[in-house]
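Lecture 7 notes: from sequence to structure.

We start with a single chain of 398 residues. Read the sequence below before looking at the structure.
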Amino acid sequence: DFLCISLVNGFIQLRYNLGDKTVILQTFQMVPTSGNTWHSLKAGRVGNEGYLDLDGINITQKASPGMNMLDTHTDFFVGGVSSLNLVNPMAVENEPLSFTGCIREIVINNRELKLTVTDPKGGANVGDCDGTVCGYTVCKNNGTCQVENSGFSCSCPQEWVGSTCEQPIHCSQNRCGSQALCIPQPTSFSYTCICALGWSGKYCDRKIKFFIAEFVGNSYIKYTDPYYGKRDLQHSRISLNFTTNQTEGLIVWMGKAEDEDNDFLAIGLANGTLKVVINLGERISVPLIHSKYSACSDERWHFATVVQNQTCIKVYLDEELILFEDIDPQKKYTALNYGSICYFGGFEIGRKVNIVTTGLFQKEFIGKIKDVVLFQDSRKIPLMKAEGYNVYNGNYGN
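Now the structure, written as tokens:
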């Protein structure tokens, strides 16, 4: 499989192959090779239907029956490749040549790549298009960069301070404690502190411990499974207890959640009903829509278990089997490659649940979670030892 964007005889060309055939799209207009004009390029696919947009002029390749998943296992290359052997012969029109020009603001699946010296995995013969120490977006938040003998300086808008205008003025002298995030409140000329896992208080200066995690909205826990390399990914299992008075919310997302093709197992609420979604490679959704089981938002503790045996899925609610389904009798994909990552309650600050889950779940979880067990482990996972923010001690009253 591959997806390649290239410049061919002055035209932008998109080629992709999902495993069965190569689809080719090409712009109608040529890209001028003179001048310093920047061009906006958008390209991609939805299923096996491709699109290519150059400076607002769109070309779409209507889909025909066939494969609809892009399965890639190599690094992502910009401007060229480290070895021509990595280029599929069908990905380009002629012999592959490296790109000569300037590229900026690369966004893959709503996440911008950092084109810096340290962030990429590697590269060669790449310089700064600006030709000065200012470069592109050296000054953040619409700051103006000025070249000086000693380097550069940034002139910042009145709401921002710092050497690169990276800090909100309301957070410049904040009292937020260990690892806390400062969130500016411009309307009140103040700020609030979002506490890292294990801390609480107005300024996140009070250490706490708990075995019941309380999610209050804009909260999450990200747990990395240390035993992932030893797991049998064809036979996965997760169980937990939860309580809430909300009818919507993502309880757990077992997967990396980096792009649409990542495997995952997700449990959440939709219209007060427990909803389970499984992706083993084909984004197969398994929602539970049974009016009998719509009382999950009653502020009582509920025990949920999802068992994956290759493509056979069992879902238990309060120890009663409520779903038993083979989501792919052909058994094309049988392993849950969750990449060792489990999210609870939501995702990192700034990542919206409805966007990351492509609408499968509408909002973050508000409520309490406890007693999380992965696979057949004899111990509950230590939530306190994970990464997270805005999660509080839910032990009180239980």
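The first strand starts at residue 2 and ends at 8. Keep this in mind for problem set 3.
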